[in-house]
Amino acid sequence: MTLTDERFAYENFESIFRQTLQDLGISRSVLGFRIIANPGAPYFLISIRLGRARSAIKVSDMSQLNPHAGGTALTIIDEGWAPALLNKLWQRYGRDRVEQMTRFEMLVRGVSVDELSNLELDPGEELKAKVLDAVWRLFPEGFTVRYEIVDERAMTIIGTEHDMRPEWIDVARMVHKEMSAREADPDV
Amino acid sequence: MYEVLMYDGGVYRVNELYELVEDVGGFVIQKTQIQVQILVTMAIPEEERPVIEAKTRELGGKIVHVPLAGTEVAVVAPTLGRHHMPHPTCDIAEQLRRLGAITVVMGLARGKGRRTSQISADEKAIIEEYDAAVFVLGNFKDCILEHKVKLFEEIEIPVVVVCGPQMDDLPHCEAIVCGVGRKVERMRREEEIARLNEVSVAIEKVVKERRRFLEEDPLFVHPAEVKDRIAELEPVERSLRPAPVVLHLDGLRVKIPYKEWKDQIAAVEVYGHRLGDIATISDSRLGGSTLIKIKTRSEVEDHDRRAKKG
Q: What is the ipTM of this complex?
């Protein structure tokens, strides 16, 4: 345990994490967080209570699908989903088969209307990726030995410089359990 | 002792100012002309400031205080990653530039972490080429006290440390500015600007101290005088780098390759002496540059005396 007064570090880490969440547009999706840093050990721990992401949506609910020669033409109705949709289509069918013609129109070659209309987008994954991005921005750069605990409600990451000790992982498990059970933090 | 000032005014009758600077025993360090406006950085003896101020008023210009003009300062962060680098480091460098310093921002190759944080001999040698260094450190007091002090403990130039936690004292550095730490945005708030001012005041003090030390055994010539002669060299005239000749407190950095031009540089004549005899000319660790360290008056006199005897 460190004997130095680390109040500045705690306050600073909290404020930069809040700002990072704001920059990434996910402040509302994170219901609470806790940062524990023990420079004497050393380890750095962050536990985040995840909020609920937008519910999953079918492609047919946010775009119009029409048969097209050799594939399907999509016209996006809700533009908010466009980046996620394009990403999903690229992952699934490859960049060669997906063409974005205009801001709202896409062409997917070799895929039927039925197949596309049943495709679902899961914003939960997107949220987790963004939260992880915020964590990596915050996490001390040299703490590359990491251990993660993730479930539907919370995400806890502990990192250190050399060997990860079992007692630190126990601390992470305990904090994770508390965080999972926690209700929304009104300050976040 | 010399004081560095900047004239901000028009080009009309500015030659009168140049003549006055020369008459009082000063030097023009840099001239930047933008159409009919001109910025002139000059070094004058401290006691002649009222004369220069009077002339400036007569010409309708104003005097800007640039206490760091004629210095080159390194702003060092543990790494170039976003955890350490962007905001405080760049803001500090910008603050020092506004006061006339030429600054270089540098990240260490293995500076990240706690116990793993380290500085190489090469990096130390590069930092020591500058007049002073600012080390921008992070949030944890324990980490700074136990490990990060090792980054600058053997650095021989003056070091100012900027960090987050409040600390009264830190070994191996000339000054410490607390309350900065990690940032995810630019330092724009009132209290942050106050911290930036504290950094510049600390560097100013360090530079003043160093100038006073140099005055005890003055340099044979002021670096600005050598700059005038060096600037006439063909490769320097042709150089497209923004500041091909940079002044240091005790010499200059000339941004032309040492190996190719060392003989021509050494042959430059300054007050009847070869530059090679009144200065130590060496290769810079930063590729493509040459360092000139001017010898003190006593060193040159001693050298002349020995030469006569010999």
A: 0.76
